[in-house]
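Reviewer 2 asked us to include a model.

Predict the structure of this chain.
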Amino acid sequence: METPVRLGRAAGTRIGVSAMLATLLVFAFLLPSPAARADDMRNAEYWLDSLGITAAQEETQGEGVKVAIIDTGIDTSHRDLLGAVVGGADMSGAGGAKGDKPIGVMSEHGTLVATLLAGRGNNQGEIDRVKSENQRLKSAWEQAKKTAEEEEEDVPEEPEYEKVPELTGGQDGVLGVAPKAQLLSISLWMGDGNPAGISVEQQIPKAVRYAVDSGAKVINMSLGSTSPAWPQSWDEAFKYAEEHDVVIVAAAGNRSGGMSQVGAPATIPGVLTVAGVDENDKASQDSSTEGISIGVAAPAEKLVGGLPEDGYARWSGTSGAAPLVAGVAALIRSKYPDMPAAQVINRILTTAKDTGAAGVDNLYGYGIIDANAAVRAEVPAVSENPLGTITEWIRVHRRNTESTTDTPDPGVSTETSDLEQVAAPAPIAPDTSTPPLQPALVVGGAALLALVLVIGGVQVGSRARKQALSARVASAKLSELRVGKTAEGRDLFDDIPEDEK
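Predicted model (structure tokens):
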């Protein structure tokens, strides 16, 4: 099936999101690729072995654990998710009552995330094989029958055909980290134009509370913001989840647009924040920000996932890294059903493979997640979440104010990063030079002077526009911002200006 170019949340288009503190989805971006087919997907899932997921699944596959996916809604009819989604709801006022209608400009995102977390694969290849073999036998029999009738001979008996199996999980399609976990699809309208007019800062706390009340033991939030601060209206919802022993996993955000810090909800104390790495276990140049709130890292490049209507796509971004970690949390909660959330998170952190600078750092957190060790290793019990608690944060930061708070320090490293920012290559002009050296020098000198003047003017104008846009971002609600369409392969963070220091 051809990878559709209409993908939004996961790719080459950008949208604005109505939120007081510039809340944006941490959309991944689709990669232009040849046709992505179900039987190609399993071999592309390199992380199943590299993260120890295949080994961990011998111990548990997430049985008995509900995971809430707060996103754009899941296409529950996708063949890799049959039976996986057991409930859900819409918080936007514009989606399906059970959260099973992908909504918004970039509606495919939720299905991509869901298949990475709990995809069950499918047996379509076996179904096609049986149908093909049955058809071959039938055609051969019909030909033999026709020949026998023409020659007035006994007609051979029609052969017995193999029963075509029902569509179920199998070796084709996407296999998630926790393929036997139960999913809750909680849909949000992310972007401008919500027909119901409900802002995202209203939708998110409702979604978190609904997930908790519906029995979710893990919540995946592949969404984020350009600001480390969050609306005060979110406090009680995240505190509610903490009090009900729920593990919340959030994406760190993508650096392809020059993002320099992790944004909320990934900055909320107690939330397990996931950064992104490439196939070589190096911090992704495109798909990961940095900050002190990062807990662990997981693959965020060359991912594969399901699209609505039984499609598939290759994609990248921390939106895809987060469900890999949320899936591991589901495996742990399945094997140790009485283990508190704080210990689940601690187990993930302490068993991670240390990467980058020794110890905890701003790029990888505790390191790259190791699913097998997280499920099987003996880890001492802890009484508190190593990532802190929202309850304590509220006590300290909200006690003397009703409407304002100190902005959390994102903890962005002041050291020079060895990661290069992504930039478009400079165009190479065709060679139109003439042989004589002197005229070339004269013309070249004049052209160089003109070029310097033009570049200087453009830079001054660009800087002025950027400062003006930054000022508007800092003071305006996100519903007042407009983020335009972009070229293929760019993340929506690319359009959000950063404050210049």
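The two ends are 47 Å apart (CA to CA). The longest strand covers residues 66-71. We have added this to the supplementary material.
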